[in-house]
Write the structure tokens for this entry.
Amino acid sequence: MRKYVILAEGNFTPHSAKTALGVLRFAKDETVAVIDSQKAGQDVSAALHADVGKGIPVVSTIDEAFAYKPTALLIGIAPIGGKLPDSWQPILQRALELGLEIVSGLHFFLNDDPELTAAAQKYGATIWDVRKPQPQYAMRIGQGKSHRQGSTTIFMAGSDCNVGKMTAALVMEQTARQRGHNSAFAATGQTGIMIAGEGVPTDRIISDFVNGAVEWLLMDLTNKHDWVFVEGQGSLCHPAYSAVTLGLLHGAHPDLQILCHEANRGFINEYPGYPIPPLKELIIMYETAARWLKPAPIVGVSLNTFSLSEEEARIAIEKATAETGLPVTDPVRFGADALVNAIESAAK
């Protein structure tokens, strides 16, 4: 069990620090402080305007954070391109001097930085590059294997990046477990791996091996569990990341799907020339792509209503229900029962 200080300097918001938010909400490891000089003096809950992190302080520096006795520093943002901000290098150096483990989900591997690796060796610290693929799956070709009979694999299909696919999967898995189902969460991105402790970083796998790596993960989990919720990545209609999404969908070989979307998001984030298709078109898109290998109907919609008032959220849910004819809810705000009910009915 780690005791984290999360580094989110200048970026501690729900969207830019989604890694931090995911770890705060779901990780078994304890977070003792967050570093962001712009919001120092607040606690995490106030800084994020969220229902997590009450009493966890936001501080200005790594030395202030060290007073709370962390054992590891976690890089709490997931920037486009996965690059380390230059201004953060001295903070990481200081963390290593203090003997802290560094946990990084960046595309740039900190173990490849000679100054950081030298500091880690000098001060007896370690660096965990979460996105670095492991040999057992890094170059595995997909074999199209079927999962254990009686198991159900549920894929979280997204309309875009950062619409709540991981969060919905984790909340649904918790709900399923509370109902007595033998369930598990399959992590396929850096934040999910930090939470689960294991998984496959699909956006760092060579394209020829994405299907095989995900298949390897799911064969293991479905042999042990009856329900497996697969964290989706990107979107089939994303101009940059669609290849990762399709490889993940086919490698997961799902039985069912849940569509994830953020209410009022009309365009692909940071790609204003690419409108997000209507929900009914997205459903057809994902069901068609899955059917190329195996039918996997979408049985519900997880609607992220974080930016809406409660009244606006309920109106958006009613609208999506009418449009799709499927159960729709925001699992964080209103619970995941409607979606788990849909899975129970479809899995019989």
Remarks:
- The first strand starts at residue 3 and ends at 7.
